[in-house]
C-alpha cells in the first residue's frame, strides 16, 4: 500500500512525523527535536522536507499538521476555533500553507472565550478527534501531560475544556522550589504502586483539589519523618494528580460513560492509578494512535484523501 | 536607658538585630544579608559580634535569637517543640549556645507531628508570642510571607498550624513556568486596587482554594483577551492569596475574633484586601514589632532580663 498522506504532530520542542495509508496505517515514522523553537531558525519548510525525504515521501504527497506549528509563533497561524464546536468542523477548518509545492495544511487549535475560564489548546483537539468517541452522549476526556487537558464532549461537539499544568508544576517545583531539597537533584520516575503516591492522591481528592496547602508538608515530612527522596517525588506526583482529578471532577461531573484517558507511556499507569483512587471508571486510548487517527480524519475532512471505505 | 538585651531575627538569607531596653524599646538596629547561608562560612559568632560591636553593645549583654539560626543547618539546633504547646513554654525552651563569652540563647521552632499534616516553623513562633494575643479564647493568626503560616491559638497555646508557600509559588511560577511569558521578566509590584487582583482572589475563594485549575487561564487570558503583564501579575497574586485564605478558612474556621494579621510592608495591603474579599474581619499587627516583642518576652521567660514592670 502506498502512502496517502504525511501526518505531523509538531509541538514546541518536538516533532513526530508519519507516512500513513488512507486507513491510517503507519508506513514510516520519524521523531525529531526540531519543534517550533528549532524550526523557526532553520525554516519550517526545510525541516519538513528533510523529514519527508528521509521517509521517502513522494513530492506530491499532501501533508497534514497539528500542534504548535499552527500558533502565532509557528509556521502559519491557524486561528483558534471557538468552542462549543463540533469536532468535525474543527478539523475541516485546517488552513493551507501558501507558496508550497505540495498541499500542506495545519489544523486549528481551540479557544474557550469565557471571561472566567479562558483557555486554549493546540494539538489535543486532533487527539480528541482520533480518540474514537461515540457520536452521541456526554463524554469526559482526560489528556495528561505538561499541560493536562480535560474536555467535555457532548454529541460529538466540544462543550468546554480546561487545562491543569500538572506536569509543569511537578518539574518547576522539583527544580526550583524548596521541594528540591526533598526530591533531590534527579528525582526518580514515580512508581504508581508507591504507597505515598496513593496516600497523597487521596489527600488532595479529600479536599477538592486544594494542592497549595499540602506542598510544604512534603518538606516537613522530610524533616520530621525522614521521608526519602523517591517517596517525596511520589507524594508530589500523587498530590498534583489527585488535585487535578478532584478539580476536573468538580467542574465537569463524571459523565455518562467512563472517562476516556488519552495517554501514552508512564503517565498511563500513574493516571490510571489516580483515577482509580478517585473512584472514576475509565478506558484508555493510546495518545500516539489517537493523534494519528485524528490527523487522518483531518486529511479526510479537508478532501486531501478519499472518504473512509 | 541602657540596653537590656540584644535581639536577633536570624533567617536563611537575612538578619535583623536590635538593642532593646527591658520594655522592648529599640535603642539601635542593624540589618544584614548575613543570614545562615553566609554565617555558616564566616562563623556565626564572628557575624554576631560584628553586628553587636557596630551597635556599641557591652561585652556582657545577653543575646536572644530566633529563626533559622536554630535549625540543623544553623548555629546550634534548637530542637522543635511539638504542638499543641503553650506559647510561654515554647519561649522558655530557648537553648544556650555553649562556649561563648556572653549569654546567647536561641528560641526553638515548632513541629506539628501529624501524619497527615506534618509542618514546621522557625521564627514565626516568636512573632506569634509578640503579637499581643489575649490569654483566653480561640484566635486565628495569619503570618504572610514566602511560606505563609496560619496558626490556631487556643487559650494561649498553639493548637495547630499550617504553611502555604504563597510567596514562593508566586516567585517560582513567575520566573520558571509558562506564566513568565504572561508576567514578563520583571513583574511590577502588585497593586491591591488592581481589579484583576480582586477578581482572581474571588475566583480562588469561590472554589475552596483550587488554584491549579486556574493558573493556565492567566496565560490564556493573555492570548485571547490581551491581558497585560501587570494585570497578569495581579491575577496570579489574587489567585494565590485567595487560594491560601480559602484553604486556611476551611481548615481552621473563622475563630471567635477577627483574624490577627501579622505582617509588614506591601503584603499588609494585599492580605488586607484579600481578607476583605473573603469576608473575614481582621486586625493588623506589625510583624517587625511583633518579633521584637516576642524576643523580649523570650529573654524574660529565660531570666535574661527582669520580669515586666
From TrEMBL, chains A, B:
Keywords for the protein's UniProt record, in alphabetical order: Membrane, Transmembrane, Transmembrane helix
Superkingdom assignment: Bacteria
Gene3D superfamilies (alphabetical): 2-keto-3-deoxy-galactonokinase, C-terminal domain, 2-keto-3-deoxy-galactonokinase, substrate binding domain
Listed InterPro entries: DGOK, DGOK_C, DGOK_N
One Pfam family this sequence matches: DGOK
Transmembrane segments: 259-282
Protein name (Swiss-Prot/TrEMBL): 2-dehydro-3-deoxygalactonokinase
